[in-house]
Amino acid sequence: MMRLLDARQRAMLAEMGVPLWMPPPAAKRGAAPAPEQTPAAAPPPATAAAAPVIAPPVAPIMVPPPAAALDKPASNNRARPADVEHMDWAQLRSAVAACRACGLCAGRTQTVFGVGSPRADWMVVGEAPGENEDRQGEPFVGQAGKLLDRMLAAIGRSRQAQCALDAASQQQPPQPQDGAGKAPTAPAPPQGGVYIANVLKCRPPGNRNPQPDEIAQCEPFLRRQIALLQPRIILAMGRFAVQSLLQTQEPIGRLRGRVHHWHGVPVVVTYHPAYLLRALPEKAKAWQDLCLALDVAESGGDGHQPTDAAAAAAAAARKP
Ligand code: SF4
Predict the structure, then answer these.
(1) Which of the residues 100, 261, 280, 297 could staple to 233 if both were Cys, CB 3.0 to 4.6 A apart?
(2) Which CA distances in Å does 150 have to 145, 158, 220, 272, 315?
(3) Is any atom of ligand 1 closer than 6 Å to the C-beta of 268?
């Protein structure tokens, strides 16, 4: 119901600059209405006397998102599943490929899951993919990767060795026994296998250092990889790999030269090959670390037996 303003109220609104709409005279209001089909008359001129009372626009109230939402990437609906600790290798690989649990998913070309045989008894853990790894989808490629491969070859280990063996064993059916009832002797594997993975599965932009929240989000994947592999020894390479595995802030220089443990698995720490490329004198220390890892792996007593080549390399490595 329309409420008419008295003269004083109209004067006050006029002082505040609020335009008023004035109803037409009573005689006109009582006149017969125009037929509906007739287009409406031209709108009244925008004079102060004819304009309706219009409430001033109300500025929208901006409600900030909850703090927790700021930490999550926009597409968190594909975040890391909660049951990582029950996954097999294939499930784990798929979960990593689909993971968007931290912001690094936005800049990756692809995830870098790991390389090597799932039956390898050695594991190398690095930090995070770099540019080459991000492009190729494999950890430790480029010059640092080549140096790592040479270091591993020196102790009779290779990322391809056990893989080739696995593939051959999957393709070849069991050999029939010969006439003497004796199965042909399988050739000894040329090298022991090694599985290589990083703490982070996605490349940090500009190869910056991994952030604590990124490590925390990605760590369950590495934990499951170690649990599935059950390696005899873990060689942790680089500060972030070492510190995240051992949950410490101590520098590598103070951690190397002794045996640590990750949930019962022996861990030997050493420098990252990328660092060794820049600090050649440290290569001698890395060699000492490899020899320590060999000793620990051989004396592990967990049922694994070193390959002949690895045992020979270990013996050679310890010669003065
Ligand atoms: S770095 Fe790890 S946690 Fe982050 S998106 Fe990649 S796979 Fe997921």
Answers:
(1) 297
(2) 9, 9, 30, 13, 18
(3) no
And the tokens for 144?
């640092």
Q: Ligand 1 within 6 A of 203 CB?
A: no
Kindly report, residue by residue over 25-44, the tens digit of the pLDDT: 444 443 444 444 433 444 44
Q: Is residue 207 very low, low, confident or very high in pLDDT (cuts 50, 70, 90)?
A: confident
3-state secondary structure of 86: helix
Distance between Cα 202 and ligand 1 center (Å): 6
DSSP letter for 281, please: G
Question: CA 196 to CA 46: how far, in whole Å?
Answer: 77
Nearest to 268 by CA among 237, 222, 229: 237
Residue 141 region by backbone torsions, left for phi larger than 0, else alpha for psi between -120 and 50, else beta: beta
Is the distance from the beta carbon of residue 202 to the nearest atom of ligand 1 less than 6 Å? yes
- The predicted structure's pLDDT at residue 12: 45
pTM over 0.70? The answer is no
What is the distance between the alpha carbons of residues 277 and 58, in angstroms, rounded to a whole number? 63
What whole-number distance in Å separates Cα of residue 298 and Cα of residue 144? 27
Which atom of ligand 1 is least distant from the CA of 105?
5
Q: Which atom of ligand 1 is nearest to the CA of 100?
A: 5
Burial class (CB in 10 A: 0-12, 13-18, 19+), 76: middle
155 and 318 Cβ atoms separated by less than 8 Å: no
- Ligand 1 midpoint to CA 112 (Å): 10
Atom of ligand 1 nearest to the CA of 96: 7
Contact 200, 127 (CB under 8 A): yes
* Ligand 1 contact, 92 CB (< 6 A): no
102 CB under 6 A from ligand 1?
yes
